[in-house]
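Running this now, will post back.
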Amino acid sequence: MNTVRLLICVALICSSALANATESCESPLCDGIPAGTFSGKVIAVIDGDTLLVFRDRHPVKVRLAEIDAPEKAQPYGSASKQSLVELVMGKQIQVASRVVDDYGRVVATVHIGEINVNHEQVRRGMAWEYSRYHSNRELMALQREAQQERRGLWAGEGAVEPSQWRKQHPSIFVGRPAGAASAVAPAPADPAL
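Update: finished.
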């Protein structure tokens, strides 16, 4: 029950931060959404494709665009989350926002230095490229490479895309939207915040 309360609080804070944002993108799909690129510190990793980023004294939930990581209860779900923790936890990142999804998450491409985090998760075999929503040939090539090299979730046989896995295990997601988190990895205390 405490996890549910935490998620509700985070959602309210995130929606408040988005409502108070002064920048907005030009596309009609992005009415009132923080535009362009912003930087922030990663304060939590929710799963292999979702982060909490501290921006302008507010946490913002960020969903990595063009990829789909295994669900936490799915094979490689924990490994995918751990991979993302190792890449970004507690670090300053660049977020190139695109849109806010139906769950209030900023959908974005994330960079840490020269590393495209979205691409790195796919390269490591810790997420699928989500070509249903893009035509990024580089990302598709990274997935083919990970499959050929049998990295991460491609090490075994029968990897199941998260959307299919959710359909096969609907009881796990009763009462929460697909992609919603049940727990987060908290950031270490930072007196500078």
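Residues 2-156 form a domain with the OB fold (Dihydrolipoamide Acetyltransferase, E2P) fold (CATH 2.40.50.90). More later if anyone needs it.
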